[in-house]
Amino acid sequence: MEEDDRRRNQNRRHQLGSESLDAGLTGQNYALQDALAKDVLVFAGSGDNAKEGNKPLAPARYLEVVSVASTTPEGKVADFSQHGDVNISAPGTGIPRWCDASFQRYCPDGGGTHTSAALASATAALIWSLHPDWTASQVLRVMYDSAGRGDDWKPGTVSTYAGYGVIRPGAHINRGLGNPGAPDRGRMPKFIQPVNHVPTTPPATPTRTPESKPSSAPAPKPAPTAASPARPNTSVLLAVGAAAALALTGAGVWGVRRIRRS
Asked: What is the Cα–Cα distance from 176 to 250, expressed in whole angstroms?
C-alpha cells in the first residue's frame, strides 16, 4: 500500500509544468507581465523530469519567473531536478506529506521542485517582511547573494543545476548577509545578479519566450557552470500573495509581493 502511495506521489511530481513554451500560454504570459509590473516575485519549480529528457518547462523558463531546483538533505541537487536554466535552489526531497486521504499519518518521501519553489517563496516573504520598502529586485538579489554554495564553487559562476546556490533565509534575517543593491524596479529575475557578482565566463544569450518583453538595458545572466551547493538551511513555509492565473499550470507557482505597513 505504501509503495502504491509512493508511486502515485512520484507520478504527480512528474506531471508538473508544461513542455510548451509558447502554445496556449498567452494568458499566463500576460499574467506574468502584470505581476512584474506590480513588483511581484513569481517562483516556479524547474521541473522533476531530469531523468526523462530534461525538456524545458513553462512557466519556469519565462524571463519573469524565478526557476527553483531541488536539493537533498545532503545539500546535493536531486537527480530528478531539471537543470539548464536554474536561478536558485531549495530543499525538495524527504519532505513530509500525508500518506492517504484520511490525514492520519505522514510519509517522509514527499517533495519535488514545486515544494522547493514554495520554500524559496517563503524565503522571499520573510526577507520582504523585514524590509517592506524593498523592491522585488532587491529581495531576489539578497537571496542570491546570501545563498549557500559549496567549497568547490568557483567565484563568478552560476551552477547549471543549483543556480546561485541554496536558499538560506537565516543568513540575511539573522546575520544581515546580502547586498540589496539598487531598486531596479521592473527588472526581470533572469537579469538580476548579486551586486558583487563578477562573471568569469562570457554572458550567455538568454532564452526568451515569444511574448516576453525584457526590461530596458538588462544585464544578461552569465553562462552557467555546474557546481555542488552547500547543505541548505530550511525555512518555514510562508508565501504571501499569488499569481492565480499561473496556478492553473499545476507547476508549483508561488507569487510573493511586499507587505505594506500602515
From this structure: 34
Residue among 93, 97, 98, 99 at smallest CA distance from 113? 93
Residue-wise pLDDT for 109-154, tens only, equals: 899 999 999 999 999 999 999 999 999 999 999 999 999 998 888 8
User: Three-state SS string across the chain, please?
Assistant: CHHHHHHHHHHHHHCCCECCCCCCCHHHHHHHHHHHHCCEEEEEECCCCHHHCCCCCECCCCCCEEEEEEECCCCCECCCCCCCCCCEEEECCCEEEECCCCCCCEEEEECCHHHHHHHHHHHHHHHHHHCCCCCHHHHHHHHHHCCECCCCCCCCCEECCCECCECCHHHHHCCCCCCCCCCCCCCCHHHCCCCCCCCCCCECCCCCCCCCCCCCCCCCCECECCCCCCCCCCCCCCCCCCCCCHHHHCCCEEEEECCCCC
**Burial track 94-107 (b if 16+ CB lie within 10 A, e otherwise):** ebeeebeeeeeeee
User: CA nearest 219: which of 184, 183, 167?
Assistant: 184
Residue pLDDT, tens place only, 68-98:
999 999 989 999 999 999 999 999 999 988 8
pTM, full prediction: 0.73
